[in-house]
Design a protein that fits this description.
about 290 residues; alpha/beta; D-Maltodextrin-Binding Protein, domain 2; Alpha-Beta Plaits; 3 domains; 10-stranded mixed beta sheet; ACT_dom; amino-acid biosynthesis; lyase; Prephenate dehydratase; aromatic amino acid biosynthesis
Length: about 290
């Protein structure tokens, strides 16, 4: 099996892949759209991309791409604990407090806002496509006074020195990663499913008062539990949105089917992203270094 993921090696997505498909061939891609295009065009069998972080919310690039493009369905969800560390090149260990720039993925920088504000106020923050890409860049520029925010696996992979551990603002820092594939997949048998869920995207009919209330009522009176609802711009004009909804039931549930039929009768467009199991992965960073 070939699995595409947001690279380079040692990203948090890489950790998710190695937890979920430990024996798979891992193919790194530079961006989330590149990864999703790869599975769409069958360059890889499976794609794993970040979907939502407990501190910073939904990964908008992933959501927007899933709405606007035709993709294979979500087959599983893997929840990975996130530990952010500050690291430098070994040559900069003695003067790490004097770094001139800190590099990382924008979500990682946001997750560590309090630490950065208190310890590195005024220092330039530069965004990279992934935490591992930032670590890799520092490994290739030992002469520069740089630091990266990334995981322990990235520090080991790119031979960097961790100078501050667990610098994220809140202890409960987890990220949801989604698994997309044209066919059913078998995840690591050591992972136990937590629950079933279905994710849909709903576009409301234009200029109808109370349309969102009617959509939510279709679930409410059937006592169907929703764990998430979020709006995103349709990119067609101000005030135009679609809604992503997580349903805590599988698609085969007859009440869910009936609710979606009712929503469509109301004139809404419904796109089902997938009905799948959610798994809780264990972040064995040192064990999965390669």
């Amino acid at each position: 099996m070939r699995v595409g993921y947001l690279g380079p090696k040692a990203t948090f997505t890489d950790i998710a892949v190695q937890n979920t498909f430990p024996d798979a061939e891992r193919i790194a891609y530079t961006t989330i759209p590149d990864c999703l295009n790869a599975v769409k065009c069958r360059e890889v069998d499976v794609a794993i991309v970040p979907f939502e972080n407990a501190l910073e919310g939904t990964v908008h690039l992933t959501i927007d791409y899933l709405y606007h493009e035709i993709n294979p369905p979500i087959r599983a969800e893997v929840i990975v604990p996130i530990q952010q560390h500050l690291m430098v090149h070994p040559l900069q260990t003695n003067n790490w407090t004097e770094v001139e720039k800190i590099l990382s993925h924008p979500h990682a920088l946001a997750q560590c806002h309090q630490f950065l504000h208190q310890q590195f106020r005024g220092v330039t923050l530069e965004q990279f496509t992934s935490t591992a890409a930032a670590a890799k860049y520092i490994s290739e520029h030992p002469e520069l006074k740089l630091a990266a925010i990334a995981n322990e696996m990235a520090a080991e992979k790119y031979h960097l020195q961790i100078v501050k551990e667990n610098i994220h603002d809140y202890h409960f820092n987890h990220t949801r990663f989604i698994v997309l594939a044209h066919e059913d997949v078998k995840v690591n048998k050591e992972l136990k499913p937590l629950y079933q869920k279905t994710t849909i995207m709903v576009t409301l009919p234009s200029d109808r008062a109370g349309a969102l209330h009617q959509v939510l009522s279709a679930f409410a009176w059937r006592q169907i539990n929703l764990s998430k609802i979020e709006s995103r711009p349709l990119k067609t004009g101000l005030g135009h949105y679609f809604f992503m909804i997580d349903i805590n039931h599988e698609m085969q549930n007859q009440l869910v089917k009936n609710a979606l039929e009712e929503i469509e009768v109301l004139g809404c467009k419904v796109k089902v992203l997938g009905s799948y199991s959610s798994y809780n992965a264990v972040n064995h960073e040192k064990e999965v270094v390669s």
